[in-house]
Amino acid sequence: RDAGLALNIVAMLHNFWEQKQGSASQSEGLLLYESAPSPRPPYIYYVTLPGGSCFGNYKECETQAEARRDAARVALMNSLVNELPSRRITPLFITHSLQEAASASTDACDPSTSLGAYCLLLQSYTGRTMLEFQEGMTVFQLLHWNGTLKILRERQCSRQSVIGYYLQRGLDASMRSSMALDWLGRERQTPRQLRMELRAAQRELDVARCHGNELRFYKEKTEILSLALSQEFTHQPHTDIHGPHTDSQESPEPHIHHQ
After folding, report:
1. Are 248 and 161 spatial neighbours (Cβ–Cβ below 8 Å)?
2. Record: fold of 2-85
């Protein structure tokens, strides 16, 4: 019976999201499974859910099939827990979260502060789940890591406009490419910085995976840095930055660097 359950865990995850999405006609590409390149065990597998959340196997697996099943098991457990009422973002949850994060000198109602920005993000996800909120937060984690948020602050973009713009846009191939080019420019200014950052990101990804955590932020970092490394000798430096213009804070227009 245990073997049968193990064999069916991939199908169970697929069925859960097929029912949740109501997309039986498009079920073939509902979940994305990826294996990390490895000539020998232990093998690593990742599964990306429809909203972008990513999970991996945290057991040491002797076969790729076992790693795939374990990744599906971790993803299914998190998917089921995410459906609990306690995982829903409510006004009460927002209040408690802000109270925990607040300091005596910080005003959560002021969107110009970091806590105020966190409040705006939480309010944007009222009625939705923590997994959905984390999917949105990942975009801003990447923008902070990449230095984009700092540049947008220097351009005097309001936090409201930045949050509104990126919540609507999400994370796409153009943004990943632009971030990769940013890191390529840093590599030309400081040789070997890119390789050091990639090694650190890979370690973070491994630690998070072994703890059964949601992985998208760490996985996106490694993929962006790997893309930059692969393009090291094929692109010229660039100075553009993606994001909203400073002169359109209510409905900012995208300003994207294309290759």
Report:
1. yes
2. Double Stranded RNA Binding Domain (3.30.160)
pLDDT of 158-210, one tens digit each?
888 999 999 998 899 999 999 999 999 999 999 999 999 999 999 999 999 99
Which amino acid, one-letter code, is at 208?
A
Helix (H, G, I), strand (E, B) or coil at 71: helix
Domain ranges, ordered by start, for the chain: 2-85, 138-149+172-259
**Non-local CB neighbours of 173 within 8 Å, separated by 6+ positions:** none
Under 8 Å between Cβ of 45 and 33: yes
Residue 1 C-alpha from the chain's centroid: 36
Q: Specify the DSSP class assigned to residue 64.
A: H
Q: Please, which residues bridge with residue 129 across strands?
A: 88
**Going along 16-103, which residue ranges are E strands?**
32-35, 45-48, 54-56
> What are the pLDDT digits (tens) for 5-43?
555 999 999 999 999 987 554 656 789 999 999 999 999
Whole-number Å distance between alpha carbons of 187 and 191: 5
Token digits of residue 142: 């990447």
Task: Compute the distance between CA of residue 171 and CA of residue 72 in angstroms, rounded to an integer.
Answer: 23
**3 state SS of 36:** coil
- What pTM was estimated for this model as a whole? 0.82
Residues contacting 85, CB < 8 A, separation 6+: none
14, exposed or middle or buried, with CB in 10 Å at 0-12, 13-18, 19+?
middle
Q: How many CA atoms lie within 13 A of 60 on its CB side?
A: 3
Residue 15, φ and ψ in degrees, nearest 5: -65, -40
The maximal CA–CA distance of the chain, rounded, in angstroms, is 63
